[in-house]
Each structure stands twice: as structure tokens, then as C-alpha cells.
Design brief:
The protein is 73% helix and 2% strand. By secondary structure, the protein is mainly α.
């Protein structure tokens, strides 16, 4: 083969791998959209259904149990029915949840429809990174694997942006928008469009070569591999896949045990999955509107801050995609852990030391000062001057926290979970790690309201700071670099 032809084939394979990965990663977009869209509807749901704090907490957190269930069974379903069929099933779950969430009779059936969407989130969270890892050449697997997180944060951004636009048009989440329907309903109905699109795209994607070889469909696997790797490397790739599978039966949870104990690599995966959530990232995305409004920001301003945070999340994820295959996974995780620890500690100190209102929320914008007659200091027009230093620092620290998370633990965890396990145990290991990841997410989102009630915002962020510090130690002790390794060599 001539050098020019080989170069052209390499370029074509890269573009094809990118196309496939982007199509699959749309599941990550729906994952992000589904989990963030409720941010702008929480207070409306509380008022419309006269729901208490516990019921609202269930509305936010119980879908995560659905996600945990979906993630746990996704690996088994993918091994039995294929990655593509699971993606299509997830798209149906997303669509049904979208429509149902806008037509609830009360808070409890609203929660039920959200759980349906949670099942789709769980399936997508496991299938997408595994599929991308299986079709990606080793030299660019980190970049393509990071598309999962990029799609998630883009989904979060679009959800928050659409919430902001809807409220800007109608004036409030409780006011009607189109067809006489309340704005908060349209926040959920918007998701139906990408859900349908995902199902259409998934239907034309090729099946994973690993799945095809495992089911003795080698001819089909060769056709897929011809568009991904050089022709002369296909036979060896198929043989390597066969050897890594070891046996013909589907992976089981028992494969994760060795002499009565979980294999060390599985413990590392569980640590990655849980710590990514225990540092509190989703507090900002699930409760961002409530959080910023509780410290004095207006509804539209708090929604705008959420949009800003999601834009930063996207930008930093792009940075991770650009450098993950050059710098490596472990250095990025270490940098992210240190940065998150410092920024979380900053927010912890600000929230803990700021004056509080009657409801116990910190007041980040205080009167600048008083004159000799104890009157507030005003400008020339008589407007009271406020010292907003604490609020500015808190916003900066929160967004720097997102920067460090977005360039490290956000995308790198998904990359590593998709590639760190060998072919034999990947399905079972991903199922267990996905379950733990969503349970940790559930724990954080459920405990945030009672934590703030008993410890205040300062104490709550102190807890997340502690987990960020633990993550520094975890990376140094447990993480092994996976950059550039073939899946069959893991």
C-alpha cells in the first residue's frame, strides 16, 4: 500500500470513528439534559402541587434510582441484545419520560415519569462509553471517550439555556407559554426532539466489533473494522478480541471476584465512580437555581448563572478532550482533585462566615456600611450601596470548581471506566460501577437539603471539600495510567 493511500485510509478511519462516536454520544446529551432540566422547575413544582421539601427532594433524586437500575442491567442487556438496540431502547425511555413529565396529575406521577427517564439515563451512561471505547483506535480513544462527557455537559447547557429562554419569554416558570400550557411543562417537552433524533441515529450506527465477535458474527465484525483500522490488522484484532473474551458466556458479577474478594481493578473503578459524585458537582446543576436564589439572586439572574456554569463546563471538557491522550488520565485527575479541593474550601469558608437571614441562608450581598447617624451609605441618587465581594468570590470559586471538574474528573472518569477493564469483565464491571455512581449521585442530591438545614451551606460544602481531599490521595495511590493501551491488553 502506498504512503498516500495509507494516509488517506487513516484519515477516513478517523473521520468514521468520530462520526460513530458523536452519534452514540447523543445519548450522553440526553443524559445531561434529563438530569439538569428539573433545575428551573423545582420552585414551580413546589407551588403548583403544594409539595413539601421531602416530595421535591424525591422529584430530584428518585430518577437517580431509576438511573442506577438502568445502569446495573445495561451491561447484561448490551451483551445479550447488542449496544445499538440498548441505545434505541434508551431513546424510547427518554421520549416517554419527556411527554409524561409535562402531563402529571400530581407530584407522585410526575416522579414516576422522571424515573422512566432515569432508566434511560442509566442505560446511556453505561452503553455509550463502553461502545465508544470498543470502536475507537487506541491512539485516539481518550479523545473519543471524552465525547461522552462533552455531550453530557452540552445537554446540561441546552437544558439550562432552554429553561432560561422559556422563563425570559413567559416571565416565570409557572406562567403559561404556548397553547396555554405552563412554562415548566415546556421545559420537559423540549427533550422529546433530541430523544427521537437519538433513536434515528442509533438505528444506523454499526454494532460493536467486540459484541459481534462474542456472538460469532465475525464477518460482520470484519466489515466494521475495515472502516476503523488498516486491513492487514483486522485478523489480529479479531484474534485479540477472542483471546480477551476467554469464554463464550456473557460476563457475570461473579467474574469480578477473585478468591472471595473483589478484584483490585474493580475497587478502583468503584472509587472513581463514587468520588466523581461525592465531591458535590451535581449540587450546582440540580439545585443551582435554588442555591443562588437562596443567597439573594433574582430568578432570571440565577438561571443565567447556571447557563454560565454550563458554558464553562463545556469549555473545560473541550480542554480535556484536547490533552487527555497527550498528558494522560492520571495527571489530569490529580490536577482536578487539587483544584476542586481549593475551590470547594473557598466556598465553604465564604458560606460559613457570611451573615445569615432568618431562614438560615448566607447573605452574600451586605450593605456597604453606615454613616455616623447609622444610616446606610448611599450614592448621589440615594441608592443604598452594597458590598458584593463575598457574592463575587463565591461565584468565581464555584465556576473555577467547575473548571477543575470539567477538565478532569468529569470526562476522565468515563474514559477510564470505558477502557480500564478487560473485555471479559467490562460489562459486569461497568454495571456495578454504574450502579455505585448513580447511588452516590442519589446520596448527594438527597442529602443536600437536610445537610444545609442542619449544617448550613458552609457545612455542606465542607463535606464535599473532604471528599475532594480524599480524591487527591486516591489518585496518587490507586490510579494506573491507561493512555495508549489496547483494550485487549488491559
Amino acid at each position: 500500500m502506498s504512503a498516500s493511500l495509507a494516509s488517506k485510509q487513516k484519515e477516513t478511519s478517523i473521520l468514521y470513528a468520530l462520526f460513530i462516536s458523536c452519534g452514540a454520544a447523543l445519548g450522553g446529551f440526553l443524559f445531561g439534559f434529563d438530569t439538569a432540566v428539573i433545575n428551573g422547575a423545582i420552585l414551580a413544582l413546589e407551588n403548583v402541587f403544594h409539595a413539601g421539601k421531602l416530595e421535591i427532594g424525591f422529584a430530584v433524586s428518585l430518577p437517580l434510582i431509576g438511573a442506577a437500575v438502568g445502569a446495573f442491567f445495561a451491561g447484561q442487556l448490551a451483551n445479550r441484545f447488542g449496544r445499538i438496540r440498548c441505545m434505541m431502547a434508551a431513546s424510547i425511555l427518554f421520549f416517554v419520560s419527556s411527554i409524561g413529565s409535562g402531563f402529571p396529575h400530581g407530584i407522585y406521577d410526575f416522579v414516576l415519569w422522571r424515573i422512566v427517564g432515569g432508566l434511560g439515563v442509566g442505560v446511556a451512561s453505561i452503553i455509550v462509553p463502553a461502545y465508544i471505547a470498543e470502536i475507537s483506535p487506541a491512539r485516539m480513544r481518550g479523545r473519543l471517550g471524552s465525547l461522552q462527557q462533552l455531550s453530557i455537559v452540552t445537554g446540561i447547557f441546552i437544558a439550562l439555556l432552554s429553561n432560561f429562554i422559556i422563563v425570559s419569554i413567559s416571565g416565570s416558570a409557572e406562567k403559561p407559554l404556548w397553547l396555554g400550557q405552563a412554562s415548566w411543562k415546556w421545559m420537559f417537552w423540549v427533550k422529546a426532539v433530541p430523544a427521537v433524533l437519538y433513536g434515528i441515529i442509533a438505528s444506523v450506527l454499526p454494532e460493536s466489533p467486540q459484541y459481534l465477535v462474542a456472538h460469532k458474527r465475525e464477518a460482520e465484525a470484519e466489515k466494521v473494522l475495515k472502516r476503523l483500522i488498516p486491513v492487514d490488522a483486522i485478523s489480529k484484532k479479531i484474534e485479540d478480541i477472542k483471546k480477551s473474551l476467554v469464554k463464550e458466556t456473557a460476563p457475570k458479577l461473579s467474574d469480578l471476584w477473585d478468591k472471595g474478594k473483589l478484584k483490585p481493578i474493580v475497587w478502583i473503578g468503584l472509587g472513581l465512580a463514587s468520588l466523581q459524585q461525592l465531591v458535590g458537582i451535581n449540587v450546582i446543576f440540580y439545585y443551582g437555581d435554588v442555591l443562588w436564589r437562596s443567597v439573594g439572586f433574582a430568578e432570571q439572574d440565577s438561571l443565567m448563572l447556571n447557563v454560565l456554569s454550563s458554558v464553562i463546563n463545556i469549555a473545560t471538557t473541550l480542554i480535556a478532550i484536547a490533552v487527555v491522550d497527550n498528558i494522560g488520565r492520571k495527571p489530569l485527575l490529580r490536577i482536578g482533585s487539587i483544584g476542586m479541593c481549593v475551590t470547594l474550601l473557598t466556598m465553604c469558608v465564604i458560606f460559613a462566615t457570611s451573615p445569615t437571614e432568618e431562614g438560615g441562608n448566607p447573605v452574600l450581598s451586605t450593605i456597604f456600611g453606615y454613616d455616623s447617624l447609622h444610616n446606610p451609605i448611599t450614592d448621589y441618587d440615594g441608592n443604598i450601596l452594597y458590598d458584593r465581594t463575598s457574592g463575587v468570590i463565591a461565584v468565581i470559586a464555584a465556576n473555577l470548581y467547575i473548571v477543575f471538574f470539567g477538565m478532569s474528573w468529569g470526562p476522565v472518569m468515563w474514559v477510564m471506566l470505558g477502557e480500564m477493564f478487560n473485555n471479559r469483565i467490562r460489562g459486569a464491571a461497568l454495571a456495578l460501577c454504574g450502579l455505585v455512581q448513580w447511588l452516590a449521585n442519589f446520596a448527594v442530591s438527597t442529602t443536600f437539603p437536610p445537610l444545609t438545614a442542619h449544617l448550613g451551606l458552609g457545612g455542606s460544602y465542607g463535606v464535599y471539600t473532604a471528599f475532594a481531599f480524599i480524591s487527591i490521595i486516591f489518585v496518587g495511590v490507586a490510579i494506573k495510567e491507561t493512555k495508549g493501551k489496547e483494550l485487549e491488553d488491559m
